Fold this sequence. Notes:
This protein has helices spanning about 35-45, 60-70, 90-105, 120-135, 195-200, 225-240, and strands at about 10-15, 30, 35, 50-55, 110, 140-145, 155-160, 160-165, 185-195, 210. By secondary structure, the chain is of the alpha/beta class.
Amino acid sequence: MSRKNFTHEILGVIPARGGSKGIPRKNIKVLKGKPLIAYTIEVAKQSSLISHLIVSTDDKETAEIARAYGAEVPFLRPKELARDKTPGLPVIQHAIRFMEGKLGTEFDYVVILQPTSPLRTVEDIDKTIQLLIDTGADSAVSLVETEASSHPMKMKKLDGSRVLPYSIAEPEGIRRQDLPTVYKRSGAVYAQTRKLVIDKGMLYGDHIVGHVVPQERSIDIDDEFDWIRAEYMLEKLRASDHSF
């Protein structure tokens, strides 16, 4: 996808490796009527800020499905960048360098959109990117408030049989509603400056800003339980006029 009259050159990358341990062929498995990756492609194409959108995959079937839903797949990712333990940084660096070579231009920003987060909206994408641009930060991420049961104060470790705080002490008797607000990355949107990714070889940097998204749209599918939750939430969101 390439469109004119953008203020910034922003590359959107949907990383979609063919293999998956938790759910086989996860990225192209059908979720409530269409392949999982289709949800990310369709919403990313609506972005008013992403100037170029590509899918980075090593898998021919994934590439065919991505193209059928309107995404550009300009290459098949090298096998050495598609292994189980391949980190995300070299995958994104490869995508940036390939597209810059193809287009003869240099990007200002890159945004990573994982197919495993099908419930993001175009507002989630554009507000996260805009926050990065407006603040001059190294990176911007989507965040979700942590559920009380997963709050850092609730996390413990064992010293022999003795229970100790894992990181932060939990005041005795503190009520769930009195726990301080804590956030975690939702997995939906990761935006970075090109300088951070290419020149510094990092995905987050020192200055990170966050855009908060609601819990009901913050499912990051890793296993079968997550898949079931995504099916349930899709039904609820569609019933409330969300256009997923």
